[in-house]
Amino acid sequence: xxxxxxxxxxxxxxxxxxxxxxxxxxxxxxxxxxxxxxxxxxxxxxxxxxxxxxxxxxxxxxxxxxxxxxxxxxxxxxxxxxxxxxxxxxxxxxxxxxxxxxxxxxxxxxxxxxxxxxxxxxxxxxxxxxxxxxxxxxxxxxxxxxxxxxxxxxxxxxxxxxxxxxxxxxxxxxxxxxxxxxxxxxxxxxxxxxxxxxxxxxxxxxxxxxxxxxxxxxxxxxxxxxxxxxxxxxxxxxxxxxxxxxxxxxxxxxxxxxxxxxxxxxxxxxxxxxxxxxxxxxxxxxxxxxxxxxxxxxxxxxxxxxxxxxxxxxxxxxxxxxxxxxxxxxxxxxxxxxxxxxxxxxxxxxxxxxxxxxxxxxxxxxxxxxxxxxxxxxxxxxxxxxxxxxxxxxxxxxxxxxxxxxxxxxxxxxxxxxxxxxxxxxxxxxxxxxxxxxxxxxxxxxxxxxxxxxxxxxxxxxxxxxxxxxxxxxxxxxxxxxxxxxxxxxxxxxxxxxxxxxxxxxxxxxxxxx
Length: 514
What we know:
Blueprint: E1 8-14, H1 18-29, E2 34-37, E3 66-67, E4 80-81, H2 103-112, H3 120-130, E5 131-133, E6 147-149, H4 157-168, E7 184-187, E8 192-193, E9 196-197, H5 200-205, E10 214-217, E11 221-228, E12 231-239, E13 242-253, H6 256-266, E14 269-270, H7 272-277, E15 284-285, E16 291-293, E17 297-305, E18 318-323, E19 338-340, E20 361-367, E21 374-378, E22 387-390, H8 397-414, E23 424-428, H9 438-445, E24 447-448, E25 479-481, H10 496-512
Parallel strand pairs: 1-2, 1-13, 2-10, 5-6, 13-25, 14-15
Antiparallel strand pairs: 3-4, 7-18, 8-9, 11-12, 12-13, 16-21, 17-20, 17-23, 17-24, 18-19, 19-20, 21-22
Keywords: FAD, Flavoprotein
Protein name: GMC family oxidoreductase
Organism: Nesterenkonia aerolata
């Protein structure tokens, strides 16, 4: 992509991920000039097209390749956090799974967490506006939006048997988990077109590249936001031609749950005492920046098959998931196991006394209602000083108990009669690990589900960073945040769909503002 390089802009958008591409497109459609800045390059890597090879993107040039600090709750391990550094952002690296979440999530945001206007009934029209759902438009689903959401794609026979295995163990079939209630086992809905990845970059923004109101700078990293007093007036960036400044009437920060707080902190917006400790003079003491970090977590149950070999998925390696409650008294599901048609061994934790099998499948136990919270902090004042990412993984015993329950449930599904033709044999955690001894296994194998949120959360209390109506950063002028970092409590399920919805809502607010 040929970068255009204006020195001034009406609106600068930082990042080119799920929400950012939506915001840029909607502003351009409204006749508003936009300069979008992306630290990565165009999405030319062929692995981006194919959901089945997403693992090849990890540790690549398109991955920020973050790791957490050592996590005491995860056996002291540092957990890899892949994040997209490319046009399309993390929607260029993810599994393309479209999950809105449960009605309860949004009603909780609105009624209990100070985010009035974000109830299920209020966000539902926005989700419908986004979707081009091949299952058909309805009162809950959209059929004319720019983003393809596909349920009718070639299915792996193993995955179809796993649906039956779930039903055999007592889970109900949920034909559309995006209707407001997620409970039960479902066939996944994917953001694909012609079997290939279709993200917001490709759906919203790429079709209007060349519009004179849209300027895109790639391979340009934002070092900090520039202020006059507390008013954002531009950004300092670094690219092939060195460090320079770009002025703007307003700045929209949408770099994700790790990079958005980082840029605010480097710009002097955040907890004042912590900023001074690393040599940054505060512009605005805003204590919630970087805090409230949380994520969904997974722990794998891996099988090889001694019957039929597992066929490769035509479109993806993940086709089925289910939502359930580790405690029947919970108001919404807190677990989301996800099934893969390949063996996925936990990093640095290979199965004891077993060869690593290439043929097999994985049932990932999944935690989607974490109580643990972490923080993003700076380790120094320089732009190349790494950020410290403490996920707080499994520091709350309730999270451990829920994830153990999910792994135990996955093991039961693996023993279901519906899978008899495959003759699965558990490799990991392995037959020598009893259900009552799973806690150590879970702590030693847990990985991210790539759903970090909350580090610039919206709300009305003293720890809130962003106004839930305007997306403005409290205590500043001309500065907005609109991405997964503003989510106050992670929704039940994958976070890409909520991020796209946030982009649409932020765009509407920005179009209407001066």
